Amino acid sequence: MLNFFPADHILPYNNQKKAESDSATRRKDPNLGLNVPETPEDTHQDEKSAFHSRHHGCREENQKIRPGQSLSITKIPSRTEPPNVSPNVQVKRVIGLRDARLKTNQKKDEEAKAKEKKTINGELIREAPQMPSNMFFQHNTALVPPYNVLVDTNFLSHTVQRKLSLLESMMDCLYAKCNPIITSCVMAELEKLGPKYRLALRVARDERWQRLECDHKGTYADDCLVDRVTKDRIYIVGTNDKLLKRRIRRIAGVPLMSVARGKYVIERLPGAPE
């Protein structure tokens, strides 16, 4: 191989480079306070760090974890996760109406357990309503003349529309003496209905009819009539209301009187004339 430069030009350049590298590789020992030359391994590491700092813009020694330095790892959010949403956020859930943690459901469970009282033998105690002593199966022996007839607002209104006499039509239907009874809640209903029912209100205010005072709140007469005939089954209920008739039919031994075309009709009364 041909040398284009003489040896005297190469050697001083090599000596100068070696001197510069020796001066650059001098480091100070912190324990002894002396300048100690670095080992070839340290020199190689410094050259590698310088290369990375020139070409990559960072030093390798900064990437190492030094003693006493904490490591912090930053989580990179994925594309599927929405931005600015913490993964530890708890979403509130609605409790169902039948959840056992609700106080209303707990109260219902306690009431149900209280009802299921058991005897020593383990049998359930079933409470059946006591039937009146005047009932012989479906026949009510307490219904004898004079008949007590509880009338409601609907019955009085239909009586006025059909132009019937209240007392005379009852006696023609039952062939016996009758006693029409009007409660205070029926009177209050007629007064609230206004001038359209003024004739029915005039019939209800007749002094010949018996009055019964109510101790309940409000002016709803259907519940009052059902409660009265359930406690004392000595009445005949006069009504044309379909819903009230349906409720009365569930009570054994209570006849129903209604307004038909030109007369009164009776049902569920044994031995009544047809």
Automatic annotation (TrEMBL):
Pfam families on file: Fcf1
Keyword tags: Nucleus, Ribosome biogenesis, rRNA processing
Ranges for region Disordered: 15-88
Compartment(s) of residence: Nucleus, Nucleolus
GO MF entries: RNA nuclease activity
Coiled-coil regions listed: none
Transmembrane segments: none
SMART domains: PINc
GO cellular component, one term: small-subunit processome
Biased composition (Polar residues): 69-88
Domain PIN per the UniProt entry, residue ranges: 147-246
Biased composition (Basic and acidic residues): 17-30, 41-50
GO BP annotation list: rRNA processing
Family to which the UniProt record says this protein belongs: Belongs to the UTP23/FCF1 family. FCF1 subfamily.
Identification of the protein by name: rRNA-processing protein FCF1
Gene: FCF1
